[in-house]
TrEMBL record:
It comes from Cyclotella cryptica. The keyword Membrane applies. Gene3D superfamilies: 3.40.50.11350. The lineage of its organism: Eukaryota, Sar, Stramenopiles, Ochrophyta, Bacillariophyta. The chain crosses the membrane at residues 7-24. This is O-fucosyltransferase family protein. Keywords: Membrane, Transmembrane, Transmembrane helix.
Length: 734
């Protein structure tokens, strides 16, 4: 089902041209094919050394494609109450920030979104500072035309299409530069995704930013409905004490069934949230509403609990909600920065402002390596919908068939972090083609929910206990629909005897039947194994905030700042099954000279892009030895811990040690996934990191780096499963 291109026929031609060029550089730029090779290449700059253009949206490309709206710095927004005016302001604010990022990057640190003060009567006469990008929200019913330059863009909202059209005409007649005038009717018709497209088009942001913003605002809208000062009236009524409830009102469509902490954590884990949160004058826009406090992982649950306890007084004063101290601290901190910022303006021009401590170099690269992905394939989206419809209030619905990935008690080997991740990805596709709800029952050695939270599917739902099990992952056992069995367990997805690989599940007759029934067969022929794995990961998982925080700690402890290369050195003497056409096992150990040679090539070819590397390994001495040979290679001092062996083979391990060891393991995988360029060694740990990354991010297989003609090395593994199916090979010639 996958297109196979015999790389052996292609590479000699490439090598002839390669050798004919006397001025060459030895870097290999490899990118995953997520749709088609041409699609990937279209995202690349002419010269890979210009890696700053491999971003969510190239500034050069943006300039070519942009409309007339390329110099927007000042925005005034207002609207009639109850017309989604706050939603418009949030979209305008975020759009302005991204617009500045593309066209006026020197002004990113000074971009600000602010609210007027209705009591002063001066908000309609707001003065914008030159060269300070600003979005201002007013509660006035219209701006004062005597206080605005023609470059200031006006955005507003109204109830109906007719009223909006009249408002737009009136504003233009008064000489205003009018942006978008939205009405409540149209916003209900086009939804969040339609609104995002209009604002992205107006601010000339491009298609990649549309995907990023749509994901962000859909989650923000859900959070805003269910949390904070401006939450849904219906849901607030549900939360109120009985004495305050308004009888006869309908319940909210979904807020009552959500785990608000999970929703808050998922929102905080989004790429755009993280980007905005690192800019002191923009982070306020990440709140459910600007009058709320900053999110911290439990803000919403604390707020909602306070509403249950104190009732409607929360609409008037945070003090009655028990949030006054936190809220005041957040507000005062923001106001202090706000005031200091404008004090500085009196002394220096905006262009000469001291840079805030926002890790701009890191942010420039983090967004390139973010989990921004293309839309799900139709078969994955179909399965997500099926799975979601089969879970009701956290429980598997009656009669729904299910399949269980389990890692229960250590009696059966589940493998290390990489083996487990690949195993769960394989189970996702087994569940997909058998039309079963995937359940993950993995409390060993700590609950999986301590390191991952569900993304699109609720894999941790409650399910009926079943004693049925089938070794569906064993290579020599056929799997089928098993229509007479409601639910069963798959006891092992890794280790001996040989297990089915992901591509073997994808190419199975059962999967072919499923894709044919859905009308997806032709489209499925175009995908790569990498994209198959990546989509399953995205559908299932987001890292728990504890892992995200620990990954940041590890990078800080290792001295990582700015762009870095991720490397994994496996020194354990474990084996990995490969195709029965080749040798049964190959060693996964990585040799020092292989890794150092590949890294030196990468650094020599791109001296301006990479300044350092982060080395992950299951061996402390390996880290120390490699780092001693190259001072630009950094590592975090961690005690060796294997999430399977360290607990299964030694049951007396202290629980605190187990938790910290598991957390460190997954955090190092996240550090690898967040790297600017990833060197892929022969380990499932490295491959799992790969599947968490943007499909366009730099990735270099170790064997390709050391053996570019691919005549040696692990052909059975890299040749069949990686090179021919998943990578686009590009030689960087100068």
């Amino acid at each position: 089902m996958l297109r196979r291109k015999k790389i052996g026929y292609i590479l000699p031609t490439i090598l002839i041209a390669f050798c004919a060029s006397l001025q060459l550089r030895t870097m290999v730029q490899l990118l995953f094919r997520f749709d088609d090779e041409k699609d990937v290449l279209s995202h690349l700059p002419p010269n890979p050394s210009d890696i700053t253009n491999i971003t969510i949206f190239s500034r050069k490309k943006a300039t070519l494609e942009a409309s007339a709206h390329e110099s927007i710095l000042h925005v005034f927004q207002y609207g009639v109450p109850l017309t989604a005016s706050a939603t418009q302001f949030h979209m305008v604010c975020v759009s302005l920030f991204l617009h500045v990022r593309i066209y006026h990057s020197a002004l990113m640190n000074s971009t600000i979104c602010s609210l007027g003060r209705p009591a002063t009567g001066e908000e309609a006469k707001v003065k914008f500072h030159k060269d300070v990008p600003q979005a201002f929200k007013s509660h006035a019913h219209k701006p004062d035309p005597t206080h605005f330059e023609k470059s200031t863009v006006i955005f507003t909202t109204h109830f109906t299409k007719a009223e909006a059209a009249k408002q737009k005409a009136d504003l233009r007649n008064q000489g205003f530069n009018v942006g978008i005038v939205h009405d409540a009717d149209t916003m209900n018709e086009i939804g969040i995704s339609g609104m995002v497209k209009q604002y992205a088009d107006f601010f000339s942001l491009g298609h990649d930013y549309i995907d990023l913003m749509t994901e962000y605002f859909q989650q923000w809208h859900r959070l805003r409905e269910c949390c904070g000062m401006q939450m849904s009236t219906y849901f607030r009524n549900e939360l109120l004490p009985a004495s305050d409830k308004v009888n006869g009102t309908k319940p909210h469509d979904y807020c009552g069934s959500l785990d608000i902490n999970i929703l808050e954590a998922q929102f905080m884990n989004m790429v755009l949230y993280k980007l905005l949160n690192d800019y002191p004058f923009m982070k306020k826009i990440n709140r459910p509403s600007i009058v709320d406090g900053d999110l911290n992982g439990s803000y919403c649950s604390r707020y909602n609990d306070a509403v249950r306890k104190h009732g409607n007084t929360g609409n008037k004063d945070h003090e009655y909600l028990g949030l006054n101290s936190m809220y005041a601290e957040v507000e005062n901190n923001w106001k202090e920065r706000h005031e200091n910022f404008f004090d500085t303006l009196k002394k220096k021009s905006a262009h000469n402002l001291p840079r805030a401590d926002t890790h701009d170099e890191r942010l420039q690269w983090s967004i390139e390596n973010s989990p921004l992905q293309p839309p799900f394939s139709p078969w994955v989206q179909d399965y997500i919908s099926f799975h979601q419809s089969s879970i009701v209030d956290g429980n598997l619905s009656e009669n729904a068939q299910y399949i269980v990935y389990e890692c229960k008690n250590g009696k059966i080997s589940c493998g290390g972090a990489g083996d487990r991740m690949i195993g769960m990805i394989k189970m996702f596709y087994l569940a997909l083609c058998t039309r079963r709800v995937l359940i993950i029952d993995a409390p060993f050695p700590i609950p999986l929910t301590d390191v991952f939270i569900p993304a699109q599917i609720e894999w941790n739902a409650t399910f009926p206990v079943t004693l049925d099990y089938f070794d569906d992952m064993d290579y020599f056992i056929d799997f089928g629909l098993r229509e007479d069995i409601r639910g069963y367990r798959v006891p092992r997805t890794n280790d001996a005897p040989r297990k089915k690989s992901l591509d073997e599940i994808w190419e199975s007759s059962l999967m072919a039947d499923h894709l044919r029934k859905g009308g997806w067969s032709e489209e499925a022929k175009k995908v790569s194994v990498a994209n198959i794995a990546r989509e399953a990961y995205r559908a299932m998982f987001q890292f728990h905030r504890a892992v995200i925080s620990r990954a940041s700690d590890l990078k800080a402890a290792a001295g990582i700042s700015g762009p870095y290369v991720g490397m994994h050195m496996r020194k354990g003497d474990q084996n990995m099954g490969v195709s029965p056409a080749g040798p049964k096992f190959v060693k996964r150990e990585t040799h020092d000279d292989e890794m150092l040679h590949c890294y030196s090539q990468l650094m020599a070819s791109h001296p301006n892009e990479f300044k350092m590397a982060y080395l992950a390994s299951d061996d402390v001495l390996t880290k120390q030895r490699i780092a001693s040979k190259d001072s630009s290679i950094h590592f975090a001092q961690l005690n060796p811990f294997h999430i399977d062996k360290s607990t299964r083979e030694s049951r007396a391990v202290d629980p605190a040690t187990v938790y910290s060891g598991v957390l460190d393991t997954w955090a190092e995988m996240l550090v690898m996934a967040e790297s600017t360029c990833l060197i892929i060694s022969k380990s499932m740990f490295a491959f799992s990191s790969l599947h968490m990354r943007d499909p366009r991010a730099c990735a270099v297989p170790l064997n390709f780096c050391n053996d570019p003609d691919h005549r040696k090395g692990d052909k059975e593994y890299f040749g069949e499963n990686i090179a021919e199916r998943e990578f686009v090979l590009r030689w960087d010639k100068s």
